Design the sequence.
């Protein structure tokens, strides 16, 4: 069995739209390392796109899942529910930002969580419009593609999209888009495209994921909270990539001291098992009628016990605090690399262990160096690394290590990355 033979089979059997970044086929994975079918070892700086915050195959999660499978695998939480779902809902409502009384629902994917947020907001307000931001990513379903603020590859060929969705600029200091610019654009939307009394919700990622790991300034999130309060608009926090300790807080909105009305949760919630949730203020969450929310696989009992164990691991191992330590190590090492290549590395940024390096040409933020980014990703496996790219122009390398990774493994991986960068930069 080889990577190339499996890739040939994959190309023949799986539609090209579901591509893969690496022709590397995993045989096993442990914590922050994985091994392919040929026995080669890799340091994983992607963790399945911020899913395995607690590392691959954490022994406590594996044990909990095995025990659940001995009992039952599925009954549907909407038919015959089970204690683990109730307990998980209780714990998620406890840890969500803010003091308001909260409730939860369970679905299967992040996109489902976003769609249900819009449904809930519309039911609560009786309004139609939703505002999202340029560069934001909210999913691949028809409605979530409409919310996503980037055409290629997510929206190209797939329209028409759901209506009553509007976009505004996301504040990015590095690209000279100020908080004032974004807020002025929102006010312009209210004058030109949709009255605030027709807006059901504003949805925002506190750190844009696919958009390039740009963190929303605290003052911006605070201003959105005030604006939504003034106009009776539901504020939705898309915490799918930022949640569960990734940014140095349990949820990124906590950095700004802001309580959203609804929160989407997925990815890092269950250590790799498919489950997602919406958590929000009770009076808003209860707006839909019974049966209006749900899904066959939402709240899988296997995923529920995994998620409960993830919460225990995060607490027991201090992973929220560990995220900040990881981010500091990456920031120091990557900033040193930036000093060697100031014309190519435009900015290094992080919020906790959500770390990015933006590549440019001639030191100019307006000259995205997509070619160099693609070259680094293409060569990463050669250096025993799993890396991910992102960004509006595809010119950002993002690092999403497991929060359980050791300092030694971080530095080993970054030593390899420095060598990889030097090769790619000098080609």
Sequence:
């Amino acid at each position: 069995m080889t990577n190339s033979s499996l890739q040939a089979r994959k190309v023949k059997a799986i539609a090209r739209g579901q591509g893969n970044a690496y022709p590397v086929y995993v045989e096993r994975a442990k914590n922050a390392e994985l091994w392919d079918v040929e026995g080669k070892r890799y340091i994983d700086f992607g963790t399945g796109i911020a899913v395995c915050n607690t590392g691959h195959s954490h022994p406590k999660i594996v044990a909990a899942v095995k025990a659940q499978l001995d009992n039952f695998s599925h009954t549907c939480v909407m038919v015959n529910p089970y204690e683990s779902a109730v307990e998980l809902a209780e714990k998620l409502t406890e840890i969500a930002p803010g003091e308001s009384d909260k409730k939860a629902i369970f679905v299967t994917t992040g996109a489902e969580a976003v769609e249900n947020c819009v449904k809930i907001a519309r039911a609560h307000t009786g309004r139609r419009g939703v505002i999202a931001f340029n560069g934001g990513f909210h999913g691949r379903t028809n409605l979530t593609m409409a919310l996503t603020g980037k055409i290629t590859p997510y929206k190209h060929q797939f329209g028409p999209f759901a209506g009553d969705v509007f976009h505004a600029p996301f504040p990015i200091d590095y690209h000279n888009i100020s908080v004032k610019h974004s807020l002025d654009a929102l006010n312009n939307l209210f004058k030109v495209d949709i009255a605030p009394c027709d807006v059901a919700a504003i949805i925002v990622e506190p750190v844009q994921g696919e958009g390039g790991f740009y963190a929303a300034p605290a003052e911006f999130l605070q201003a959105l909270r005030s604006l939504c309060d003034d106009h009776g608009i539901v504020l939705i926090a898309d915490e799918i990539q930022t949640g569960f300790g990734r940014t140095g807080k349990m949820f990124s909105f906590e950095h700004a001291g802001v309580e959203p009305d609804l929160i989407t949760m997925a990815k890092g919630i269950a250590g790799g098992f498919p489950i997602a949730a919406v958590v929000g203020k009770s009076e808003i969450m209860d707006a839909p009628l019974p049966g209006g929310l749900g899904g066959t696989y939402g709240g899988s009992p296997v995923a529920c016990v995994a998620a409960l164990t993830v919460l225990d691991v995060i607490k027991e191992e201090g992973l929220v605090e560990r995220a900040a330590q990881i981010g500091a190590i990456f920031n120091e090492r990557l900033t040193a690399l930036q000093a060697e290549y100031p014309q190519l590395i435009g900015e290094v940024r992080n919020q906790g262990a959500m770390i990015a390096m933006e590549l440019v040409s001639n030191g100019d933020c307006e000259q995205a160096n997509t070619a160099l980014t693609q070259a680094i990703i293409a060569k990463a496996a050669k250096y025993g690394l799993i890396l991910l790219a992102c960004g509006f122009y595809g010119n950002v390398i993002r690092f999403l290590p497991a929060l359980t990774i050791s300092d030694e493994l971080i530095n080993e991986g970054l030593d390899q990355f420095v060598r990889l960068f030097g090769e790619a930069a000098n080609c």
The CA atoms of residues 11 and 364 lie 38 Å apart. The chain is about 40% helix and 20% strand.
